[in-house]
Amino acid sequence: MVYRDYWALSQWYAHYGRHLGHENLYVVSHGPDPEVARLCPQASVITIPRDGFAHFDAMRNRLLNDFQRGLIEVYDWVIRTDADELICVSPEHHSGFHDLLSQQEANAVFALGLNVAEHPGDPELIDGELALTKRRSAMFSGHYSKAWAVRKRVGLMRHGIEVRPRFAARHPFVMPRGVYLAHLKFANTQALSAANRIRREIANSTGPGLPGAAWQDPGSENRKFFDMMDALPHQDWSQAEPAAYELLSQDPVRDTNKGLIRARSIKGQVKTTLPQWFASA
After folding, report:
1. What is the value of pTM for the model shown?
2. Which one, 11, 52, 133, 223, has the greatest CB density within 10 A?
């Protein structure tokens, strides 16, 4: 689901179209916008009204879960990400999405999360250029170690999965090795500035249940992130990745009242450099 996040949407369309076929992509446009169809010419674009933001996150989640369950009637698996999230599969572990998902016995799959960041001195990204060809600085993130693929009637909620509460204590938590969610919010500071204006507009509108402080003052939140990235020590991928996987691939949060299962929201303690294979992931 997207609204005017054109740079991220173009990255999303190119990435998933290459792996899954553009005809299998679905975009929910939050309000009429011909630019979405122009950027995603072979995808199915569904337009919904943009007439208020009360309880925005809850409304969006219900809508997308219902749409997702509809797609499960015709697809074996449904992948769902935000426009600025790319699932990257290591060629050392899997030959691609089909190989990865065909091996799964559980009904939901998580990925090890990465915040990919623009580093001082990085070249500017021009239109049509894939972000991961020029952005290699990253930090592992429990918050973005999200559920991203489901089958049957499993829902997605708050970066995790939603099951019947009585199943939450024992439902499998599966994070396959070599599968990463690359979050691109901080990978292009020029696009980030444009997106901030929209986030601020939504969060400072009127009505209950609006997004919180991160959207009300996105500039401050972004400065905190880049200051943190600058201050973190660097660790080689060969050390940072196994440590992050060991930490985040087990012992998830299990809310047995809401039926929610998600990775722990642990912040990275080091920054690292993405291996070269991400450039063609």
Report:
1. 0.94
2. 11
Q: Is the pLDDT of residue 211 over 70?
A: no
Residue type, 187: A
Amino acid at 11: Q
Q: Is 72 exposed, middle or buried (0-12, 13-18, 19+ CB in 10 A)?
A: middle
Give all strands (DSSP E) within the chain, no chain letters: 26-30, 44-48, 78-79, 85-89, 108-110, 112-117, 137-141, 147-150, 155-157, 160-162, 179-183, 253-255, 260-262, 272-273
Residue with tokens 């020590």: 233
Other beta carbons less than 10 A from residue 152's beta carbon: 9
Would you say 46 and 26 are in contact if contact means Cβ atoms under 8 Å apart?
yes
Res. 206 pLDDT band, cuts 50 70 90: low
Residue 103: predicted pLDDT: 95
Residue whose pair of structure tokens reads 């609006």 in the numeric block: 210
Q: Could you identify the residue written with the tokens 């009429």?
A: 32
DSSP state of 31: S
Pairing of strands 44-48, 26-30: parallel
Name the burial class of residue 74, with classes exposed (0-12), middle (13-18) and buried (19+) by CB atoms within 10 angstroms of its CB. exposed
Cα 146–Cα 38–Cα 85 angle in degrees, nearest 5: 10
Tokens of 90: 């290591």
Q: Which residues contact 264 (CB under 8 A, 6 or more apart)?
A: 142, 248, 251, 252, 253
Alpha carbons within 13 A on the beta-carbon side of 185? 21
Q: Are 119 and 139 in contact (CB under 8 A)?
A: no
For the CA atoms of 243, 248, 249, 253, the dihedral, rounded to the nearest 10 degrees, stands at: 160
